[in-house]
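Study this:
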Amino acid sequence: MFPHDPVLRFAPSPNGELHLGHAYSALVNHEMARAIGGKFLLRHEDIDTARCTPAFERQVEDDLAFLGVTWDEPPRRQSEHMHDYAAALEALAAEDLVYPAFMSRGEIKAHVERFEEEEGRAWPRDPDGAPLYPGLDRHASTKEREKRMSEGARFAWRLDVERAIEMVPALTWEEHGASPVGESGTIVARPLEWGDVVLGRMDIPTSYHLSVVVDDAIQGVTDVVRGRDLFYATSIQRLLQALLGLPQPRHHHHELILGADGRKLSKSARDTSLRALREAGLGAEDIRRMVGLPGRPAGPSEAATVRSRGSSARR
């Protein structure tokens, strides 16, 4: 059922303190890896150097140790591997699959509002609800692009998703968890729903989508176990894996820990952190109960239960 040498990972961004949702995902990954005799890795996704700090990184590791989570290799820090992402971006550029996109957020917003007012219908949006990039500069000439770049215009490298799909028209992934609407098994990827996503910027040669597929390949990750909020992102990541010739991991998207108001927990909303719960006197067993996990790590005989249940608690 599992690869001969399974590798799982927990990959938070050290831009804030971990909350119960992070605790659940880390524990499920860790215990699944241990139950199947696999390797468990910790990765700090810190490409956002403005918000990610060494202090938050230390807090992440301290919280995980408190929960009894241990990792088998030194953590990988994305900020130390920009050359890997730059190489991947250059490979895509060599195939004419990326282009410099110059529209700012404000210009995109204005374009979308003008369209909706004039056309009387909604502008298409990605699965996260953000408007798709208009792509007005997708077919600009090389001369025009070079001129704007030489003049110092800010830009982002975007994937020409329509051209990319022509190169790899049929993509699927193996889902052993479930989508937000219950899909499981062989899932057909729909990267077109994301439009021309950002793959890099002027000062950073990567983005979340690009770095995560490169990291998973380099680290030999065989099973990606994460929250259902990232289910739809798998489509664009499968496309990048195919374009770059990277291995395809299996996926397990689990339920999310939800707040009392039914909202997904998040750092930006300042939901109660593990650190605050610890300072209030709660122990690791208390945290496990709060996220609906048994009061002890699962043994080998419980591997299937840990793997299939998602969560008995609401996430």
Remarks:
- The CA atoms of residues 220 and 271 lie 33 Å apart.
- DSSP finds eleven helices and ten strands in the chain.
- Residues 298-315 have pLDDT under 50 and may be disordered.
